[in-house]
Amino acid sequence: MQEELELKSLQKVEDFSKKIRENILNMAYLAGSSSAHIGGALSIADILSFLFVNKMKIELKNPLDENRDRFILSKGHACLAYYAGLCELGYISKDELKTFEKNNSNLLGHPVINRKLGIEFSNGSLGMGLSLGIGVAIASKKKKKKLNVFVILGDGECNEGSVWEGAMAAPNFKLDNLHVIIDRNNFQQTGSNKEIMDLGDLKKKWISFGWETIELDGHNLNELSNYFSKSDEIKKPKAIIANTIKGKGFSFSENDNSWHHGILTKSIYEKALSELNNKK
After folding, report:
1. What share of the chain is helix, strand, coil (3-state, %, to 5)?
2. Full-prediction pTM beyond 0.90?
């Protein structure tokens, strides 16, 4: 019985992730913009889906509930996935998604705080999200709130020195309510991480700063489920090195860094929808 429930739960995550990818395609196509950042949004779609469906404590009817879990997208340029997920949760309408990057829209190329829409913080200046997360985690402890803070960092973002200042600070403050997920898709804006700034063994680095650290497949829902089913028992700040594929989900975009800024033409958009709808 428990196994059946877990399978149904993971199927919900998989369905949610498929809807996120469809929303990403629709927003990017309608925007016709090189700042849609499709590749980095697709690499976090499965992680974000798992958090929103299976892990986070959030309440649509009360978006300002002080006891809600907090989500911070530090790699703010991947906001297509964020907006797409908030839409599937019911915070953002399908019609509002169509306004992405249009004049007077709430949905800009980087998230701008709008808690009624579920957007917790303004983000986009890389390296800042972890510091925000640490502040929220400290504040929640001082207020004696039992909530978790989830921060998604890009692997290229880990070139920023502020990330490592935050990595050093969190264990010092004993922030066992802080979860960091590093989207390790091995690319950044202008090339591969290895050729621009080789990150080496990220797992060992985070461990050395005092974090409970695990490396897993960021697209494998079973691995994510197994980890998060036990993560609250760990009394340290927690880091996941999530190995992902940039542009995950479509034959034309996977591991192709041109889709960091690629623009969806009508023919590619239709091809992508066809591939998505033909997946079992």
Report:
1. 50, 10, 40
2. yes
